[in-house]
Specification:
The structure is a single chain. This protein has about 375 residues and is mainly α. The protein contains 19 helices and three strands. It has a three-stranded antiparallel beta sheet with strand order 1-2-3. Strand 2 and strand 3 form a beta hairpin. Helix 8 runs parallel beside helix 9 and helix 16 packs parallel to helix 17. The longest helix has 19 residues. It is elongated, with a radius of gyration of 26 Å.
Length: about 375
Amino acid sequence: MSSAPLRSPTPRPHRMKKDESFLGKLGGTLARKKKAKEVSDLQEEGRHAINSPMSPASADVHPEDTLLEENEERTMIDPTSKDDPKFKELVKVLIDWINDVLVEERIIVKQLEEDLYDGQVLQKLLEKLAGCRLNVAEVTQSEIGQKQKLQTVLEAVHGLLRPHGRALQWTVDSIHGKNLVAILHLLVSLAVHFRAPIRLPEHVSVQVVVVRKREGLLHSSHVTEELTTTTEMMMGRFERDAFDTLFDHAPDKLSVVKKSLITFVNKHLNKLNLEVTELETQFADGVHLVLLMGLLEDYFVPLHNFYLTPDSFDQKVHNVAFAFELMLDGGLKTPKARPEDVVNLDLKSTLRVLYNLFTKYKDLE
């Protein structure tokens, strides 16, 4: 949210010397008990662990990340992963989705780990998505209160997702600890479960640096975390088809398939003086799809049933969903695609829909 949670002010000394050690800036009970040199050595040890040969990428280590108790563990995303365009896209898509869902609540999320850790936004998001009301305090400033709210919210999430014995990739402590990877796992699972009208980038993975303290020394390792797979896998469509094979193993033949489908649709759309040159973009608003179904089944589609000039995402989804209904009325099977995927310019989904039509109507004069 735009407003940060209230925190107790940290007492400041009246004067600070220019050469004051890093100890004065750390704050906290643990830091005050250590001498300046010990803290400096510990921080340097942490940086060395992160930059060791088994951790080739330099991680941005904060002082609190190196002040670990024995056997304590901290995790952080490798900076190179944060700079990955697909990772940035995933974060942006999820933030935009949350803001769209909560627009009536006047909640604006800008940074996932800072705005979601206390459970307030997650509570509102889940209530909106699931159409339920959680029995939690509206505002909680204390850490105990925040964790209690998170516990209630996450228990409700678990009840909805029903993981069937699969290990959950988030906990109350990881969310409250602002672990971005855990927060992303949670949001992706919610988006998939509630079939969010968004397009999650596929095959997004991050390198996570894990720092542990054993026998007084810090040890680091890298772990790869997979945040998203393919759209089909995430949305529960596990059966692969010819288009999966085409995209994965014969992309050179893709242009041939597209050309055949363009020829097919134009053969009919030309009757209305319409022409298609790009499948993924020109069918995304659903208009051509609705008109094509009318031409193929030889009837006029009343204009009040769809948006002839849609100007919003919801109107485009309505058009594509309406075209799917016309396909079912025509005896076709339910398309192996979501209307949202077609609107979001997913070429594979659009090809599946059009090929379904091609198979039935290709011999139609």
